[in-house]
Amino acid sequence: MFLAAVLFLCSFFFPWLGNVPVIFFGVIIVLLFIDIWILYRQPKGIFARRNTPERLSNGDDNEIGIYIESFYNFKVEIGIIDEIPHQFQKRDVWFKTNLEPRQHKLLNYILKPTKRGEYEFGAVRVYVRSAISLIQRRYNFEQPQALPVYPSFLQMRKYELMAISNHLNEIGIKKIRRLGHSMEFEQIKNYVPGDDFRTVNWKATARHSSLMVNNYTEEKSQQVYCVIDKSRVMKMPFEGLSLLDYAINASLVLSSVALIKQDKAGLITISDKKGATIAADRRPTQLNKIMEVLYKEKTRYMETNMELLYTTVRNTIKQRSLLLFFTNFESLSALERQLPFLKRIAKFHLLIVVFFENTELKKLSNADASDVEGIYIKTVAEKLIYEKKMIVKELNRHGIKSILTTPQNLTVNTINRYLQIKARQQI
To answer: Contact at 8 Å (CB) between 141 and 126?
Structure first.
């Protein structure tokens, strides 16, 4: 069109151009009508559909697919806009592709949510061009969808499969040497070199005329509770996820592994008010029950009521259990406020306090200081890191076990400690 305007302008100064501008403009108009006719003669030339899972996994890569099919008898150029949920703050989910006559394709892309809740998708909009490419025809496929974002069930499945096949060490889980053996009998088997002579079953040996030994297995039906702090200290973000979300994901994975190991998994959430409480059980529905509760949990911007936690634990858990308390301490003074209640809980249960390293402080402490301000910042960072280590020593001094971990290693370190305690029969 711009070239046609230039030709019309030039025809005033160059009469020899004659009707060339008119002919050129006429050709454009003819091509435009041809383009409109071939794109719009079919009422439904394109079909598109968004393929999504039933739910999204928080903090994980979730695959979304767009199925596109052409009913045109000629090759078309396709542009696709998918209206993804506003939580992602992305307006550039745009795909370009070409479709041959009667061809269909599946286009995949990845979404990584960082918050739990409802995520609403909008329409799928498709723009079609022919080979002439003077106009685009838009197709709107209204496909409103509300998908729930649950705690990381993809991570849970990965660890679950590893636990079933006893390959947890492949993803960082340590193999723990068992000290002694439990008294939970499993079977009688033939003796092989390396078996403990103390487990020889003399009656079975006499019957079979070969050396037989008793085989014992890990004790089962022990109670494992994940206690999650929902107060303001768990709101700190790390790589898009809050510490609360890391704790929730780790609790879900640990509960899954505990159920596979024939233990009972339970849950308690706490802040300034009493949160959800799920009694420990190992029924097949227990994991779904825990997931449904964790899906709705949110951070409260108040201090943790430790006295309420103590009374909740005493009223809910009647037998000695393993309690993993997911919280965070930034200073010794913060620990001292909660220590009396932690000591009282540790009298009745095996308590493990799980809190987090501040990776940003570690970066500051490792950075080179070039001026007085840099030296000051580096000194303060090292002091705060040292306080974290002192918190671990203070807890150990009072007989309370602890895990100081980075958020990304939380799940692995928590499962390691659980398997270590189970192997050593400390519950």
So the answer is: yes
Residue 400's SS3 state is coil
* Average pLDDT in the chain: 87
Residues 321, 350 contacting (CB under 8 angstroms): yes
Nearest residue to 415 via CA among 58, 156, 152, 151: 156
Q: Give pTM, 2 decimals.
A: 0.74
Residue 244's Cβ-side half-sphere holds a number of Cα atoms within 13 Å equal to 22
Residues 6+ apart with CB under 8 A from 29: none
User: Does the structure show a pLDDT above 80 at 233?
Assistant: yes
139 forms beta bridges with 126
- Give the pLDDT of residue 179: 44
CATH 2.60.40.10 fits 46-150, yes or no: yes
Domain 153-177+219-423 has CATH 1.20.80.10: no
Token look-up 């008119």 returns 22
Across the range 71-90, mean pLDDT stands at 92
Residue 134 tokens read as 């003077």
Provide the β-strand partners of residue 148: 118
